[in-house]
Amino acid sequence: MFKRLKSDIDAVFERDPAARSRLEVVLCYPGVHAVLMHRVAHAMWQRGWRTAARFVSQLARFLTGIEIHPGAVIGERLFIDHGMGVVVGETAEIGNDVTLYQGVTLGGVSLDPGKRHPTIGDRVVIGAGAKVLGPFTVGAGARIGSNAVVVKEVPPGATMVGIPARAVGPQPRPERECFPAYGTEPGVAVDPTLRQIERLEARLGELQARIDALERQADERPRIARVS
Questions:
Q1: Which of 52, 59, 70, 129 registers the highest number of CB atoms within 10 A of its CB?
Q2: What is the pTM of this model?
Q3: 37: exposed, middle or buried (C-beta count within 10 Å: 0-12, 13-18, 19+)?
């Protein structure tokens, strides 16, 4: 338990520049508190102490604003940043080194008693307000942009944005490597709709320039004819 707590604290320092000391993280980070209490609740759930497990999870929800069902399976070094409003469903599975921001939902869309919630691969980053809904897999290293709504399988390493979420093409490399907070690189626009609009605007500019040139040529021809 203490070894896992140490690795959870290390994950905070790796991904949050605001963290200044281990004592601060232990006392002031609700994401760390929620994960720690979930590990206790999950152990109870596995032993068949279902009501006690639910009570611990609801206590964690009251104290942290983060709701993790005790049946959910969580890997190592999960970092929930800020955390208020995060919801993780009963059959959700989260891999190692995953980052969730405030308002994230790992939810289900059916009343099927079996697998209803997503499986999140290692090193996935899910931005604030994003919803991942259904019993599919989000591949390792994927990024889910803020407020995206993901309702289908996500390939490893993909970046998903929009409602419903769709994959965007290869992103420009930042000048220096950094942790992709909220699932995006700083200064990089990843919205494919915006990129399409920008391409259309550029094309319209080219066509307008050609029309202007043709109009100038048409205006010059009568003058040439009169002079001759």
A1: 70
A2: 0.76
A3: buried
Peptide linkage before 156 cis (omega within 30 of 0): no
Phi, psi of 36 (to 5 degrees): -60, -45
Q: Is the dihedral of CA 11, 134, 68, 44 positive or negative?
A: negative
End-to-end CA distance of the chain: 96
Asked whether 149 and 164 are in contact (CB, 8 A), the reply is: yes
Residue matched to tokens 């009251």: 62
For residue 84, give every residue at least 6 positions away whose Cβ sits within 8 Å of its Cβ, in sequence order, or none.
30, 65, 66, 102, 103
Burial degree of 76 (CB within 10 A; 0-12, 13-18, 19+): middle
In this structure, the dihedral spanned by the alpha carbons of residues 214, 218, 219 and 220, taken in order and rounded to 10 degrees, is: 100
- pLDDT < 70: residue spans in the chain: 1-2, 169-194, 222-228
Predicted pLDDT at 59: 96
Q: Which residues pair with 100 in a beta bridge?
A: 80, 126
19: alpha, beta or left? (left if phi > 0; alpha if psi -120 to 50): beta
Q: Please tell me the predicted confidence (pLDDT) of residue 176.
A: 55
Interstrand relation of 137-138 and 159-161 (parallel, antiparallel or unpaired): unpaired
What distance in Å separates the CA atoms of residue 224 and residue 209, rounded to the nearest whole number?
23
Distances (CA, A) of 150 to 19, 131, 166: 30, 6, 8
Spatial neighbors of 195 by CB under 8 A, at least 6 apart, are 168, 189
Residue 92: closest CA among 77, 112, 71: 71
